[in-house]
Write a structure and sequence with these properties.
There is one protein chain. Helices cover 45% and strands 14% of the residues. The chain is α/β, with parallel strands linked by helices. A hairpin with a 2-residue loop joins strand 8 and strand 9. Helix 1 crosses helix 2 and helix 12 crosses helix 14 (397-413). The relative contact order is 0.10. This is VWFA domain-containing protein. InterPro entries: NorD/CobT (IPR051928), vWFA_dom_sf (IPR036465).
Length: 584
């Protein structure tokens, strides 16, 4: 297990990424029962920073301190915030949908075989049933509280605090603020809630929801993900949820990323070749981002169109610099290509005059007294550019789109076939979005359609790109990966090479995390396999300082870190020059 400091850093990074802001110190973090950074709740904390005035939320929590049920009230508030941030963020961050569904399944699994102790427990169960699109079953009181507690997307910080004050006053006989909004006001201390078997005071033993304790300094890690309780079989209802969830996965991927560009039979054949070992039971979805027109797809298309506009605007704002970078990179590539081409000298009617042949023009009327040097192209080459399209790149989307475009445009001007794609992992799928293919020399601007979602399963992405590189038509192949050097996928990987099925508790037996050193080694292994197979693999680093060494381990000597935009063409140019010079 990684030390607490490492998990603290990981939790902070998830929070910063979801917040879209790296300039603050997180007031709280979330951990599971193993002390691991909890992915879902840390992104909720980050989203709360993104969409609400978080200092007001913290101040509100402060008004609860000193009350014996402060923990319960805070966690009810967090359920409301979770709902509000999900609705606010779904359009621009569609990957939170599968994250939320997975967490809801885990939570409901923990309740299997147990009876809710009171309405507070029922509120939690009903909330996560709704998250899965199911009917919220519970007492009328629990359902009524939940209806008010699930903050909607239109509510700002002041509105959710007013709503929470109303809930605490109306249902718990508690006023967090006095009439001036300054001091806590207590009512009678003997507050009671209706329990399914009678009545009991809230200060008695608290079950699952009450253990979800956020402190003002740090989340205390009482989320029980995959605990040992309730291992006996799951209810038929939950099994039906699981089966439907798995059946709907492919349709979900289609509605959020576009129709597949490869027929189902072809996809299954590729999965049989590529989704093995550490990536067993993973699936592939290759797409050109063309949607069929469902309601969910329309929602996603709108978000993608907005990000495309942002990417283009960012590029155009720096048009002069970017045009210069393209020209510089193009010159480097052309110069290297020229040195690798064989030359032939042919007699010609124009070119360099051959003095000793002049007499033939005078006496024999022969115009072929010139020599023209022809360079015969011997470089049978294709280049694949693959962009890390995971949510960890959210704050860098515009610059990554620009970098991908600059490389592709430079290579296109040199007549080199280029394919550009992005990758991310959502649910059990590696999604490969192809923006332009080798022959599509007029489609470089499609790269500005780059958006991010989900996680990054670098090893499977690299394996897939290497398998597809060149399409069987080119002898020399180069794969350029724009990466943050931090492979991370919640789907995990098999320890035995065979990935067992998912349990309803959210655990995957025999599986270890696809993150940290294990993820780095998996990606590095695929790079080494590619090099042994004769394909050059170049890593262009686009991540945080802490991941530089990991990226270096993955890509070895063919690794470049871009210190500033102005150096982009020179750094990438040197790497390409080295690879081109070594080709036959």
């Amino acid at each position: 297990m990684e030390d607490r400091g490492s998990e603290k850093a990981r939790a902070s990074n998830i929070i910063w990424t979801a917040a879209g802001d790296y300039a603050f110190k997180p007031e709280m973090r979330a951990y599971d029962e193993r002390g691991k950074a909890d992915i879902y709740w840390n992104q909720v904390i980050g989203a709360a920073h993104r969409y609400y005035e978080f200092e007001k939320v913290i101040a509100f929590f402060g008004t609860l301190e000193g009350d014996r049920n402060a923990v319960i009230f805070r966690n009810l508030m967090w359920l409301g915030i979770e709902n509000g941030t999900f609705l606010k963020g779904l359009e621009e961050r569609p990957a939170i949908g599968p994250l939320r569904e997975a967490y809801a399944l885990k939570t409901l699994g923990k309740w299997e075989g147990k009876e809710p102790y009171d309405e507070v427990d029922e509120i939690e169960i009903a909330h996560y049933r709704r998250a899965l699109g199911l009917k919220a079953e519970g007492t009328p009181l629990a359902t009524k509280i939940l209806d008010e507690l699930e903050f909607d997307a239109s509510m700002d910080t002041d509105m959710i605090i007013v709503r929470m004050n109303h809930i605490l006053e109306g249902y718990f006989e508690f006023l967090p603020l006095d009439e001036k909004g300054m001091k806590p006001k207590r009512t009678r201390s003997g507050r009671e809630m209706v329990h399914l078997g009678g009545r009991r005071r809230l200060t008695q033993g608290v079950p699952y929801l009450k253990r979800l304790s956020f402190g003002t300094a740090e989340y205390n890690g009482e989320i029980r993900i995959g605990d040992a309780e309730g291992k006996s079989g799951f209810s038929l209802q939950l099994l039906k949820i699981r089966n439907k969830w798995e059946q709907d996965q492919r349709e979900y991927i289609r509605s959020h990323f576009g129709e597949p560009s490869v027929p189902d039979d072809g996809t299954r054949a590729l999965e049989g070749i590529l989704c093995t070992g550490n990536h067993s039971s993973c699936h592939l979805h290759m797409t050109r981002g063309i949607f069929a027109g469902s309601e969910a797809s329309a929602f996603v298309m709108k978000a993608k169109a907005r990000q495309r506009e942002i990417n283009i605007r960012h590029y155009e704002e720096n048009h002069a610099r970017n045009s210069n970078l393209i020209s510089r990179l193009e010159r480097r590539i052309r110069n290297t290509m020229l040195t690798s081409m064989e030359s032939a000298k042919l007699k010609s009617e124009s070119g360099s005059l051959v003095i000793e042949k002049v007499w033939r023009n005078v006496h024999l009327n022969d115009d072929m007294v010139f020599i023209r040097t022809l360079r015969e192209k011997t470089m049978d080459l294709s280049v694949d550019i693959m962009l890390d399209g995971s949510s960890s790149q959210m704050s860098r989307q515009e610059s990554i789109a620009a970098q991908g475009y600059i490389i592709a445009e430079s290579l296109t001007r040199c007549g080199i076939p280029v394919r550009v794609s992005s990758f991310c992992s959502v649910r059990d799928f590696l999604v490969l979005n192809i923006y332009r293919d080798y022959e599509e020399i007029k489609k470089n601007r499609e790269i500005f359609g780059y958006t991010v979602a989900g996680f990054n399963r670098d090893g499977l992405a690299i394996r897939t790109a290497l398998h597809l590189a060149g399409g069987g038509k080119y002898q020399n192949r180069i794969l350029i990966v724009l990466t943050d050097g931090d492979p991370n996928d919640m789907h995990g990987m098999s320890m035995s090479g065979r990935l067992p099925g998912r349990s309803m508790s959210g655990r995957l037996p025999g599986r270890r995390e696809y993150a940290g050193p294990a993820g780095v080694e998996d990606a590095a292994r695929e790079v080494r396999n590619g090099v042994r197979g004769g394909i050059s693999v170049i890593g262009v680093f686009t991540g945080l300082d802490k991941n530089v060494e990991a990226a270096r381990k993955i890509y070895g000597r063919n690794f470049a870190r871009i210190e500033s935009p102005e150096k982009f063409a020179d750094v990438v140019g040197v790497l390409l020059q080295n690879e081109l010079a070594n080709m036959e």
